[in-house]
Amino acid sequence: MIKSLVPSLVILSLCATALGEVVRPAPNFAIAGIRASSTLRSFRGQTVVLIITRSARDKYFRDELYRLKELYGQFANEKVIFVAAIETGPANINSDIPFVTAASPAQVASDYGVSGRFAIAVIGTDGNLDLITVRPINASRVKDMIFNNYDSQEAARKQPEQ
């Protein structure tokens, strides 16, 4: 049964790509402590790096903070917003990177399909989910996602050739 579906799925994905962009809007969520109406959508036009973790003491979380710290200056110049969704324990994040926190971390994890202890997501300026992974990744990969997102590639395509 599965083998018979594979050709159909391939054709469907090719048709979707040919007909236009295939996007995955990032699930919206509330941001704690800024103002009552602050949500992920209120950051539209800025890149958001979302880190979902069960605890601020989690090894994967701490490893990711260490990796991101090395390129934080470049991220700050691009006005990247860092959001933490910490499910348990205090949300004290020992980092030079300023984080805002999700109001309902468990709901964020559920909405993003994260059932493990850690995930990192990059949400582009257009509000689409550009990357989500359950393993810590190199900060340069996050940087690539920020600088080479759909909006920047679209703008580059519109530039006249010289």
Contiguous uncertain segments of 5+ residues? 1-20
Whole-number tally of structural domains: 1
What integer is the average pLDDT?
A: 80
Which band does the percent of strand residues land in? 15-25%
Structural class: alpha/beta
CATH topology: Glutaredoxin
Describe the fold and architecture.
By secondary structure, the chain is of the alpha/beta class. The chain has a single domain (23-158), classed as Glutaredoxin. Helices cover 37% and strands 18% of the residues. It is built from 6 helices and 6 strands. A 6-stranded mixed β-sheet has the order 1-4-3-2-5-6, with helices on both faces. A hairpin with a 5-residue loop joins strand 5 (118-123) and strand 6 (129-133). The longest helix has 18 residues, at 2-19. It is globular and about 55 Å long. Residues 1-20 have low confidence and may be disordered.
